[in-house]
Amino acid sequence: MFAKLTGIKHVLGRRAFASQAAPATPGKAGPTAPKLSTVFIAVAAPLAFTGALYWIDNEQKTSAKKAFLQKKAKEDPTPAFAPGNKDFLDFTLVDIEKLTPNTSRFVFALPDDATHLGLPTASCLVTKFTKGVKEDGKPDDVIRPYTPVEDPSLGYTGTFDLIVKKYVGGPMSTYIFGLKRGESLAMKGPIQKYKYEPNKDKHIGLVAGGTGITPMLQVIQRALSDPHDDTKLSLLFANVTEQDIILRDYLDELAKKHKDRFTVFYTLDKPSATWTGGSGFVSEEMLTALLPAPGEGKVFVCGPGPMVAHVSGPKAKDYSQGEVGGLLEKLGYTKADVFKF
Which of 148, 151, 146 is nearest to 73 (CA)? Predict the structure, then answer.
């Protein structure tokens, strides 16, 4: 390698100009300047080889690190958010996937030493960005809650997802949709909403609307990833149109893979002429067909305010559970049967 680089230096040391006459020797042709392509190859070849070695070395280090963290995730899992955490941490955005016309999956990297996010099922976190300074000189922070998605069945992936719907005039969703890969978002957690326990309930019914699917996904993924958990899960997923159904292929694949434990039923406010699923708002008939009977399991509800009010009655003004109302009250469900995310 050293000999090659010395030769390159010698070649580059010869300066030749178009207006410069080559010295003539009787009976001999004058020296010819090296072609540009020859110089390029002489320089590029060893640099390309060095670059390839660097890439291979990095790939090997990355693979070794991932293997180490995969093993650690099983033997000694380390959360990004320690229990009782009160600090915001910055997480780097590494990928974006459009799911529906107004909803995307934002993939964030875990810290280097973390094997998982560290949120018990079912929990949310809060995101923050500062949009300016208030009149009193304090930061004008925007803070909003989101439910992250992190499939335990995949083991260590080094990432987690936020599924975000963009709302017109919504400061946080607009900010997140404006993020570029490599930029970061401040988050803090965990905020546990419900303590899921394997086999505590024989049957759990999940009624979701739109992005209200995210806490349901936490429960579904946690339950189905545990070989010792036999809980039956029934999802009723309501949306406006067929293209609004978030992660439909993924949910259908889970239902196919876990036929004995997980079922999913879709209903649309505005179905097309070819739609074969449910039509209209969530109804008593749908709930009766899919949910455990009152007193025989648990019912989770999450979605837009009007939908939650229609199905289970709204939360109280202080965001506590409030009384059970709506369709579930008519069907005989009580506060012990229902949890509103």
Answer: 151
